[in-house]
Amino acid sequence: MDPFLDMARSLEGFAVETGGWRPVLRIGPHADVGRLLREAREAGIGFHIFEPEWPSISDPGAYITYRPVDAGTWSVSLGNHGWHWAGYRVPENVVEAHVRAIGVVDVLEPRARREPEQSPEQSAEMARRRLALRSG
Q1: 83 Cβ partners below 8 Å, 6+ apart?
Q2: Which of 24, 76, 94, 97 is the most exposed place for a label (fewest CB within 10 A)?
Q3: CA–centroid distance for 71 within its chain
Q4: 77 bridge partner residues
């Protein structure tokens, strides 16, 4: 299994779900998100969040990708059908607050590996999964 996912499983408050085309982490109310982010940053691992409340000019919500840049800083890009923002940098405490608020993240491969392209069907399935996980 993936060392990052093994680490996440070992931390109290996290649950790893597999079966989709990417692992999904559920974040419990007492999870140490700061430690998870530090471990992810050190391993060069980013993640996706679907933010259903994000204002959008197209479909509701935004797909947000966080990738580690350096100690305490993450790059963020976001978009949905027809629009995209990229290149923003945010401090780790902002990422931590967002992860806590959403409660579910999709794990990306380390930066050294190329991420597979996502088909529209996969995008729709990921959105359905996220919304189902959020509704509990």
Answers
A1: 56, 57, 58
A2: 97
A3: 18
A4: 65
CA torsion angle for 20, 109, 70, 42 (degrees, to 10)?
90
3-state helix, strand, coil in the chain (%, to 5): 35, 35, 30
Instruction: Confirm if 9 and 31 have CB atoms less than 8 A apart.
Output: no
For the question of whether the overall pTM of this predicted structure is more than 0.85, the answer is no
Residue with tokens 């990417």: 22
25 in Cβ contact with 8 (< 8 Å): yes
Summarize pLDDT for 39-53 with one digit per residue, the tens. Answer: 888 888 888 888 888
Sign of CA dihedral 17, 22, 26, 32: positive
Give the Cα separation of 67 and 74 in Å (integer).
5
- Stretches where the chain sits below pLDDT 50 are 111-117
Cα 65 to Cα 11, 18, 41, 68, 117, distances in angstroms: 23, 19, 14, 10, 14
Beta carbons within 8 Å of 124's beta carbon, 6+ residues apart: none
